[in-house]
From TrEMBL:
Residues 2-99 form the Rieske domain. Its cofactor is [2Fe-2S] cluster. This is Rieske 2Fe-2S domain-containing protein. PANTHER family: FERREDOXIN-RELATED, RIESKE DOMAIN-CONTAINING PROTEIN. The lineage of its organism: Archaea, Thermoproteota, Thermoprotei, Sulfolobales, Sulfolobaceae. One of its GO terms (molecular function) is 2 iron, 2 sulfur cluster binding. It comes from Sulfuracidifex metallicus DSM 6482 = JCM 9184. Transmembrane segments: none annotated. Keywords: 2Fe-2S, Iron, Iron-sulfur, Metal-binding. PROSITE patterns: RIESKE (PS51296).
C-alpha cells in the first residue's frame, strides 16, 4: 500500500523519516513541488540516511563512507559502493504526496 504524507508536515530543505511497515522511507522536500522519497538505509553498509545523509545540489551524500548518490536515479556516482540507492516514485495528490513503496 502506498504511503501518504501531508505536504505541510515537511518544510523546505527538510528530510524526514516515515514508517511504512518495516520500511523506513526518507522524504526530502526540495521546495516547489519537488518531493523525493528514498529508502532510509544506505545500500552500502546500512547507515541511516536521515542521520548521515547530506544533500548537495542533485546528490545525497552518505557521510558514513562518502558515497554520492544521484537524487533522480539513485545511482552511486562516486564513493564506497556500486549499489543503487532505492528511490520511490512520488505522486502529487494535492495536499498530500503518495509514495509508491
Ligand atoms: S554506509 Fe553509506 S557510504 Fe557506507
Amino acid at each position: 500500500m502506498p504511503l501518504r504524507v501531508r505536504k505541510s508536515d515537511i518544510k523546505v530543505g527538510e528530510k524526514k523519516v516515515f514508517k511504512d511497515g518495516e520500511k523506513e522511507i526518507l522524504v526530502i522536500y526540495l521546495g516547489g513541488n519537488k518531493f523525493i522519497a528514498v529508502n532510509n538505509k544506505c545500500p552500502h553498509l546500512g547507515c541511516k540516511l536521515d542521520k548521515t545523509g547530506v544533500i548537495i545540489r542533485e546528490e545525497l551524500i552518505c557521510q558514513c563512507h562518502f558515497t554520492h548518490f544521484s537524487l533522480s536515479t539513485g545511482e552511486p556516482r562516486k564513493g564506497a559502493t556500486k549499489k543503487q540507492l532505492i528511490i520511490y516514485k512520488v505522486n502529487d495528490k494535492g495536499d498530500e504526496i503518495e509514495v509508491e513503496t
